[in-house]
Design brief:
With about 220 residues, the chain is mainly alpha-helical. The protein is built from ten helices and five strands; from the N terminus they run ααααααββαβαββαα.
Length: about 220
């Protein structure tokens, strides 16, 4: 018979990290305002982030991963959309075959595991990491792609001597590159990339390799 996995609140009470009253207060706050239980307990001052992680490490037998000391491959990042990673504050850190290792601050949250398994179509192997490190890593890996994409495309535009404010016509709409492109939506950058590819200025493979080099330089 399969043993039911304990929930976060049960584990923390069992380890005497919080008491019943604190758990009830945190659950009430969570019900009213949403969010994760662990985050709520930390924000309400009932438990320190590291203490919470230490308890989970002991109870679940999962070694905590220091996300600042690893380099997450793009093959793993591509398995999970940024919107899902940010929604649940989780980070894919390794893909092997049909198994995706997912850094989580609360590996007991089976609802998140099930949802991401459904979204990705692969088996999820939870790994333990500090919530603050996961949030920082998400900004580093996912948001950096947008920043590097913008900087890289303007480098390409300048490298082929485009004017300071080139105008392209796409579907009857004028697209202005501008001197830096920092205010551009990503969708418009995609249009410019495709136009450069269509004109033979750069191939899609060359662009992806260049963007990848930019990401590595800023990591």
């Amino acid at each position: 018979m399969e043993t039911k996995r304990k929930k976060l609140g049960e584990i923390l009470i069992e380890e005497k990290v919080i008491d019943e009253m604190q758990l009830k207060a945190a659950l009430g706050h969570q019900q009213q305002w949403g969010g994760k239980l662990g985050t709520t307990l930390i924000e309400m001052g009932f438990v320190a982030e590291r203490a919470l992680a230490d308890v989970l490490e002991k109870q679940l037998g999962l070694k905590m991963i220091d996300l600042s000391s690893i380099d997450v491959p793009e093959s793993a990042l591509k398995k999970l959309p940024a919107s899902v990673a940010k929604k649940h504050n989780v980070l894919p850190i390794e893909i092997r075959g049909q198994t995706l290792t997912l850094a989580m601050s609360d590996p007991t949250d089976l609802n998140v595991v099930d949802e991401i398994q459904f979204t990705t179509g692969v088996t999820i192997r939870p790994a333990l990491a500090l919530e603050s490190q996961i949030r920082k890593a998400i900004r580093h890996y996912y948001d950096a792609e947008v920043i590097d994409f913008r900087g890289g495309i303007m480098d390409i535009a300048r490298s082929v001597d485009l004017p300071a404010d080139p105008v392209f016509i796409q579907g009857g709409t004028e697209i202005h590159a501008g001197p830096s492109g920092t205010d551009w939506p990503v969708a418009e950058f995609e249009i410019l990339v495709q136009l450069l590819i269509d004109r033979g200025v750069i191939t899609r493979q060359e662009w992806e390799e260049r963007a990848s080099r930019v990401r590595r330089r800023t990591s």
